[in-house]
Predict the structure.
Amino acid sequence: MTQKKASLWKLFSTFFRIGIFTFGGGLAMLPLIERQVVETQGWVDRDEMLDIVALSQSIPGAIAVNCSVFIGLRLRGLPGAIAAMLGTMTPSVLVILIIAHFFTQFQSSTVLLRAFSGIKAAVIGLLAAAAFKVGRKAVVNRYGLVAAVCAFVLSAFKLLPAVWIIILGAVGGILYFSRRQGGEAQ
């Protein structure tokens, strides 16, 4: 796939729009990020996006910010990383400043509380859609299914921290595919 060139302004404005129209944090932003950078802009392909999401999840920080930094870095180097990061973060900072200014008035608003209840439900749907899209691409065999189910159980029941689940997944993948490749060579 030929990669389209992105201006710094285009990186900033694309991630700003994603940030301003997404509630629920970084995971809820993933479907919008994927749609924009893969389908609309053509900046990366689906496989590369999957790698970016995996890498973004495995390092400290908000996943949406990490994704934007990796995409910006890939397209335009350090200035691109900064532009994409600022685009992702600026809407949240502005909303936080506005909420902080009017906090006491927002705190007792039943309309706002009802709106956020609806937003929370919508975010669950966005997270499920993101998990489904990533899962379709990542779970391609029995090993992938077993690894995904194990990771889900370990995470959902807080049996291991996320970093250890990622490390176990990496080690398991290396062992499984090394053994499988060794068996095919014989």
The CA atoms of residues 24 and 122 lie 9 Å apart. Helices lie at 8-20, 26-40, 46-58, 63-101, 103-107, 110-138, 142-156, 162-185. The first helix runs from residue 8 to 20. The two ends are 35 Å apart (CA to CA).
